[in-house]
Amino acid sequence: MNDLPIETTAPGMSGRKPRKRRENRAFLAFLAVWMFLLGAGISGAVLYSNHMKRQITAELEKQTASQIAALQADYEARMTTLQQSYEAQLAELQTKVDALNELLTFTKDNVDTKTDNSNKLYTQLNEVKKQLAALQKNLEVLK
């Protein structure tokens, strides 16, 4: 009948295979871009969180160092104040001890019947005054 060969494939069928491949390629490209964006987002989040962690750590170290310096200065000021207070109290106590030692020495000298040093010194002082008065009279006579 007709010498025309019958085509076994319809004209619409040959277009479907390439379309399916194109759809697969488009899907794979979309999937690759989506995975790239997802990975970039995760990487960005990790990098940002590490950056913030370092920044917060540095800020905390600064605050801690300043607080420690303030506490140390306060501690040293208090220690200096306490030391000065104790030195003043010790000086006052030393003065009282010295006065007590003088009183005890004077009492001991007065109690001792063999040597009465304070009385002897007073007597010698009176004698020196008398001699000085006599020398002044002699000096006036010589003038």
UniProtKB/TrEMBL annotation:
Coiled-coil features, chain-numbered ranges? 83-138
Q: Which UniProt keywords apply?
A: Coiled coil, Membrane, Transmembrane, Transmembrane helix
TM segment ranges:
26-48
Q: What is the official name of this protein in its record?
A: Uncharacterized protein
